[in-house]
Amino acid sequence: QVQLVESGGGLVQPGGSLRLSCAASGSIFVINVCGWYRQAPGSQRELVALSTHAGSAKLADSVKGRFTISRDNTKNTVYLQMSSLKPEDTAVYYCNAQGLETGGLRPFNYWGQGTQVTVSS
After folding, report:
1. Which of 74, 25, 81 is nearest to 53 (CA)?
2. 31/38 Cα distance (integer angstroms)
3. pLDDT single digits (tens) 42-71
4. 51-84 b/e (C-beta count within 10 Å ≥ 16 → b)
5. In 13-64, at which residue ranges do the beta strands (DSSP E only) sit?
6. Integer Rg of the chain from CA
7. What percent of the chain has pLDDT over 70?
């Protein structure tokens, strides 16, 4: 089993910044891909940013230039630095991790519980 614990959400004014963190723990051999998705009320969950173990990153067009994804493989933690936040960034942000578990190298795909980000004046 792998557990993902997110932190860092909250209420911020337009133009402000927030940093989300997602720490993975449990039977982890390697996390190959981790990232952030978000879901606004009445909308489908959408990809925000992905990071691979090798260090490459992918960002949604809507957040390019404003958000940065980074990870610390030694801590099994992924971060999402969000700047120049807009009201349309308001959503529940979910962490996702895909990799291999110890004791058999079974693939895993887990989600965090979600953290609310609200951008409002």
Report:
1. 74
2. 20
3. 999 999 999 998 889 999 999 999 999 999
4. beeeeeeebeeebeeebbbebeeeebbbbbebee
5. 18-26, 28-39, 46-52, 57-59
6. 14
7. 100
Total residue length of the chain: 121
Q: Which residue carries 């390019």 as its tokens?
A: 64
Confirm if 12 and 85 have CB atoms less than 8 A apart: yes
Greatest alpha-carbon pair distance for the chain in Å reads: 50
DSSP 33: E
The first and second tokens of residue 7, run together, are 């932190």
Structure tokens at 69: 């994804």
